[in-house]
Write a structure and sequence with these properties.
The structure is a homodimer of 344-residue chains. Chain A has 344 residues and is α/β, with parallel strands linked by helices. Helices cover 28% and strands 18% of the residues of chain A. In chain A, strand 7 (192-196), helix 6 (201-209) and strand 8 (214-219) form a beta-alpha-beta unit. Chains A, B: It is an enzyme of class 2 (transferase). Chains A, B: InterPro entries: DPH1/DPH2, DPH1/DPH2_1, DPH1/DPH2_2, DPH1/DPH2_3, DPH1/DPH2_euk_archaea, Dph2_arc. Chains A, B: It holds the Pfam family Diphthamide_syn.
């Protein structure tokens, strides 16, 4: 099992950037129907980063199927999940289509097109069996492969496994679904979990959230089977916490993205610490934080920016739980993965 | 006169990044009064890029002057002008303070603190006289030096000049004020204009907008007198237009920042051109546009991103006027600087 240091921990590699071309189902009929039903004249289309370049072709197809007076608008905002809706575009269009993710929260205004993959998951699942010696196994996947989740489960059962699945919590749409920030669907009674899907982003989070479980990755996009290894990330987390222990001035980041805000958490920290300053932003980037002369940051927004992009920031960047350790409120061995619950 | 290629055309160098420390008047009394009057519990503070690191100290001073139950929030969003309000923070705070710019549009919600400079403009103005041989001279400056505009004008008159000044249009608050996107205050009856202020960002725009005028820069921040030279920029503009003439697919950018949107202009282009795609975003950056497989872009947002940052984009980026030339609707000699008018 080799880990590619240049891609893991890179939020752009979420399994959506393609090694080989896949066919996606853009569900144009469903969009056209909504446009006609609502007499829409403005339609917003939002794609995740890896699929943004398909946007113009999708807009072309939709233009051919709808009246000339419909204007299609492509969101140019970064998008890293269903938590990350372009609310500006959503509010100013009659139909707003969010591609690539399943609903974090149902809304009449938004059409979610999950973009189910047509990749065959079974060859890699078969290869993964060597890494799954026990009878009990958990099964999880991402929105892209949800359309075949039932088949995957049946197949594992036919191989003699007792398959454990769970819906997780409100943040998750489907049984067995994981998000980069939520692995409640893996709170199951098995010591090994099979993740079927592209990339290492999701299984790395899963392994950090469930350090007692073996997380086996069957990746049908890159045709590879690996076991998630969190060692590098955990070392980075402990290193960041230690470096932040001397911090005097803290920047507390409140993320303004619709599904990434934890206001009470941010407010509590600044209320309890006179040397903490509340900073609000949508995209949390090294460039933006460089403008603030802080000794350390605590990020109440997307936990994956903290854990995966952490080393790119000029000062230690901690999760709220890690902050409690750094300021001495909690012991070091309480360090755990930061997860997001609820919708917005 | 030497031009520093590494700083001109860099939007971060707007004269706000300091070579020597200046004292700013943050007008804390005015802010405290508003906090008390409105019984505010949430106060938003927005600084331009070069002054963001002063934010925590300003928040500390305000905390000492107001009740404990007031929470101060620092905007971490990039900010490049009064056009660039953090509307998220503005809508979610009881008092919203925008530092470093004068009002583009008055609003009861917003307190504008222009941050007047205490730098003495007269030594550099005196040095600039050698470059101003004619009797008639225009006089312009930025928000930071507006507090001494009357003195500057009187001083020039005492030196024997006939000084021409103008308020410009709705986008400008003060007589003689310029913005990076609006030089209506220099529409005066003189062939030479004296710009007093830091950096080359504003006078370069002024010289591009008024190519028939000599623009002399008296920079009291960096202690230098120069004459604006637009040659490099004009060559880049013609080069970009020529490279875009072969473009088939056009990305048309509509900027969602409150003071940078020109919707009718963007809509007209996509309505007239079947190969044009509307892309919406707040920050217009090379990274974000790289996601779109276009041959060229036309930016209906901030013209300074187009003219000053243009070469950083992977494909030619044109102003709306330059687009008309590239697609053959207008002759090449109609090329002119793109200005913004009106508020929002």
């Amino acid at each position: 099992m080799s880990q590619d240091a240049s891609t893991e921990g890179d939020l752009r590699n979420t399994g959506m950037s393609l090694k080989h071309d896949r066919e996606w189902d853009y569900e144009l009929d469903r969009i056209v129907e909504a446009v006609e039903e609502r007499n829409a004249t403005k339609v917003g289309l939002q794609f995740p980063e890896g699929l943004k370049r398909r946007g113009p072709a999708v807009a072309d197809d939709l233009r051919a199927l709808t009246d000339d007076d419909v204007t299609y608008m492509l969101s140019g905002q970064p998008c890293y999940g269903a938590c990350d809706l372009d609310t500006y575009l959503m509010r100013r269009t009659d139909v707003f289509v969010h591609f690539g993710h399943s609903p974090m929260k149902e809304s009449e205004k938004i059409i979610y097109v999950p973009l189910f993959s047509n990749v065959d998951p079974f060859p890699m699942m078969e290869d993964a069996l060597d890494e799954l010696p026990e009878e009990d196994v958990g099964l999880v996947t991402t929105a892209q492969h949800m359309n075949r989740f039932g088949e995957m489960k049946s197949w594992l059962e036919s191989e003699g496994y007792t398959v454990h699945t769970r819906k997780g919590d409100d943040r998750l749409t489907h049984e067995g679904q994981v998000l980069g920030c939520n692995y409640a669907s893996a709170d199951i009674d098995a010591d090994q979990v099979l993740y079927v899907g592209g990339g290492k982003f999701h299984p790395l989070g899963l392994a950090m959230e469930h350090p007692d479980k073996k997380v086996v990755i069957a990746d049908p996009v890159n045709n590879v089977v690996t076991v998630a290894d969190t060692e590098k990330f955990m070392k980075q987390r402990y290193g960041a916490v230690h470096r932040a222990m001397d911090a005097e001035k803290w920047g507390v980041i409140f993320c303004t993205k619709i599904g990434q805000g934890r206001w009470e958490m941010a407010e509590e920290i600044v209320n309890d610490n006179d040397d903490a300053y509340l900073i609000t932003m949508d995209e949390v980037t090294p460039d933006r934080l460089r403008n603030f002369d802080m000794d350390a940051f605590v990020n109440t927004g997307c936990p994956r920016i903290t854990t995966d992009d952490g080393p790119q920031f000029h000062k230690p960047m901690l999760t709220p739980g890690e902050y409690r350790i750094a300021v001495g409120d909690e012991p070091l061995d309480s360090l755990s993965f930061d997860t997001f619950h609820g919708t917005w």
